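User: Can you fold this complex?
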Amino acid sequence: MQKPHRFLLDRVASYAEEGSAYLRRRRIRSQPFARVWREGGAVEAVGAETEVGIRLFKVANALLGEAARPK
Amino acid sequence: MRAVSLAVAEDDAKRALATLVETCAGLRSGAIVAAGGELLAESAEGDWSAQVRRLWSALDGERKPPATQVHVATEAGELFAVRSGAITVVALTDRFALASLMFCDLRSVLRDLPAVADLADGEAALDAERKAA
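Assistant: Here's the predicted assembly.
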């Protein structure tokens, strides 16, 4: 049988691991990105530095900048 | 005739958008825009028609199948757009919105707009007839 303190250590280590994975995911997710779905089911990531990406981010920023004005 | 049809379509669109705003957590604002640039519904003021046109024109220029959905995440928030036929539903949300749920809701709005879709199809057919004549 596992000693009680080992069980506790395992438990705490698991929670810490989950927490760090969550923060890692959130950090990756917080980077600006653009994703496009096309007819036929293809999905592609659009780089922010590409011509299409620049145009998409321009549109998004313009609309999000105006979104503070409720009707 | 066209004005009456458009009014009915706008009513449907406004109702659908109001439901979307009520049910979606984290949604800041949204709009429904027809292909011709007509703004059918908006929950907040904005340059929706022009920006939606710019959004799709950025993607339509490429030699790829037409884009149907777009998700753009910036530091200020996130933009989701879905189009079907001639109608676009666009939504602006807080950061870290659940993308798959948001797209599911936007697609359901598109499905609930039969009158608008009919109008758009009718307009497209009229345009085709005009070009053929």
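The first strand of chain B starts at residue 27 and ends at 34. The CA atoms of residues 52 and 58 of chain B lie 10 Å apart.
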